[in-house]
Write a structure and sequence with these properties.
alpha/beta; FAD/NAD(P)-binding domain; protoporphyrinogen ix oxidase, domain 3; Polyamine Oxidase, Chain A, domain 2; 3 domains; 5-stranded parallel beta sheet; 18 helices; 32% helix
Length: 528
């Protein structure tokens, strides 16, 4: 291989780019990762034999390319208690039945998992996405339901225009009353700012075309559908099943990293990029620091593929235009903390609306906590993502997710104080008794969520500046300051390698990933 690409970050974007370079070009990837393990926010954290998935990673995509790519790394397994899986795409039909996987590969597989996400509000469970069914009417009451319906009708007849804020976006699709009941408080808990201060683009990327009318159509058509893990006809928020690596999302990226190394690529953990050298509009080298020893060394490169936060990258590039530098330096983020709690049992909840196990464990993958009297944002039940995430199947392994800012009251708590605080909140809303807590751990994730307010409105000047550097390709959630799912990050990596493979300096296809309302909601020509 005569050329070299330095890749900053070994998350889904960086590792996808590395493996694609090895398969499609003569460019050798050198991946630089500051963490001690690969996967980025999609890594799997192990604690006392239990495994944690930070933020919950469903392996689902509307992109055929992504689905095939995942399947080429970890094949789909099936357990005896699941029906036979039938996949059909690209004119190819595949059947997966229990017992078809070789025993030697029984752990290196993806499982087919049922999705159940619900909202916890007023100490009761609601379907997510919301359904206009008897459970919802019983929980809210017929008068409140009538008010929601009237509010939705007003929003459809007289939508807000122009639609500039997230509040506008949500009110136009769900009505003011439903927005204030199920969206406003939770969203502001996540982002720490009012919905009116968040750009409508966030809704376009994360909620896309979902609406009450589409949710109703989904419910009516459900009995007529056959199961297909692609589920292309459904909005992302309505997906009912998904694939999941047996040992969590990090298993996928650990396997990819092993393939990158086996094919001649390099991955350097506990190293970070600390400077970028360029001549005119070309990056010629990056300086890498060993986090442990402090040693610095330059790496010459033909391409630099960056998933590092834009603020860091722009400091090294030192743009002459102060507007570009200032915009990048002050792009907002939301940070994230998870309290992993191991408990003996959970408390049965009245009107749960779904079967709970004998130890009180609900069947949900995650639960959105809308209660305003706690700071808890979301609750994961790791047992329901994969049984292999839990060392002792008689216990319940929970992830309590909090959204915060580095240096604030939550972030600054000691681990012991934070675990006690989290357990007390879960007890306060009636889901556990603190006496049933067996163990716990805390994980902090800085810059987990690129935010769409403040200086984000001027990000166009930063993108334009980056596009002028011919061999620099930004990818990934932080590298593009875009709230991508992992499949979007993979598609951005693919687009970056497309540019390298074809010699193109155009970046439109790169920035187009996850930028439009209907992107990946239907089959695209890229996936064909």
């Amino acid at each position: 291989m005569s050329r070299c690409a330095v890749i900053a970050g070994a998350g889904p974007a960086g590792l996808t780019a590395a493996l694609e370079l090895l398969g499609r070009t003569d460019v050798r990837p050198i991946v630089i990762e500051a963490d001690s393990q690969v996967g980025g926010i999609a890594k799997t954290i192990e604690y006392q034999g239990n495994r944690m998935d930070l933020g919950g990673h469903r392996f689902f995509s509307k992109s055929e390319w992504v689905m095939r790519w995942w399947e080429s790394i970890l094949p789909i397994a099936h357990s005896a208690d699941e029906p036979t899986l039938h996949l059909q795409y690209q004119g190819r039909s595949t059947h997966y039945s229990p017992g078809t996987q070789a025993r030697a590969a029984i752990d290196r597989v993806m499982l087919v998992r049922k999705r159940l996400s619900r909202i916890f509000y007023r100490r009761r469970f609601f379907d997510y996405p919301l359904k206009l069914n008897l459970q919802t009417v019983r929980n809210l009451g017929p008068v409140y339901m009538a008010q929601i319906s009237a509010s939705y009708a007003r929003a459809r007849l007289r939508p807000r225009s122009p639609e500039t804020s997230l509040e506008d976006f949500l009110v136009n699709r769900f009505g003011d009353r439903l927005y204030r009941t199920f969206f406003k408080d939770y969203t502001e808990k996540v982002w720490g700012v009012p919905c009116r201060d968040i750009d409508a683009e966030w809704g376009a990327q994360r909620i896309k075309g979902l609406s009450i009318s589409k949710a109703l159509k989904h419910a009516m058509m459900k009995p007529l559908r056959q199961f297909d893990t692609r589920q292309k006809q459904l909005e992302t928020s309505l997906i009912e099943r998904f694939l999941y690596p047996k040992f969590g999302p990090g298993q996928m990226w650990e396997e990819v990293a092993a393939r990158v190394a086996a094919r001649g690529g390099e991955i350097h953990l506990r190293h970070r990029v600390v400077n970028v050298t360029r001549e005119a509009q070309t990056v010629t080298a990056v300086t890498v620091q060993d986090v442990v020893s402090g040693e610095l060394r330059p790496l010459a490169c033909d391409y630099f593929i960056s998933s590092m936060p834009l603020a860091e990258l722009m400091r090294y590039l030192a743009p002459a235009d102060p507007r570009v530098a200032n915009t990048a330096e002050h792009l907002p983020y939301r940070d994230f903390m998870t309290a992993g709690l191991l408990v003996r049992r959970m408390s049965p909840v009245a009107r749960a609306g779904a079967r709970q196990s004998s130890n009180g464990m609900p069947p949900d993958n995650w639960i959105y906590v809308q209660e305003s009297d706690v700071k808890l944002g979301r609750l994961q039940v790791f047992n329901n993502w994969s049984p292999a995430l839990v060392a002792d199947p008689s216990t319940i392994w929970l992830g309590l997710e909090y959204f915060c800012t580095q240096g604030d009251e939550l972030w600054s708590m000691s681990d012991g104080s934070f675990l006690a605080f989290a357990a007390a909140e879960l007890e306060k809303i009636g889901l556990i008794s603190q006496s049933d807590v067996l163990d716990g751990t805390v994980v902090r994730v800085p810059k987990a969520y690129p935010a769409y307010f403040g200086n984000y409105r001027d990000i166009g000047c930063v993108r334009e500046y980056l596009d002028g550097i011919g061999n620099l390709l930004p990818i990934g959630r932080n590298g593009m300051h875009r709230y991508n799912n992992q499949d979007h990050s993979m598609l951005a990596a693919k687009a970056a390698v497309d540019c390298i493979a074809t010699g193109s300096t155009a970046r439109a296809q790169l920035w187009a990933v996850n930028a439009e309302d209907d992107y990946l909601e239907t089959a695209s020509s890229e996936a064909a």
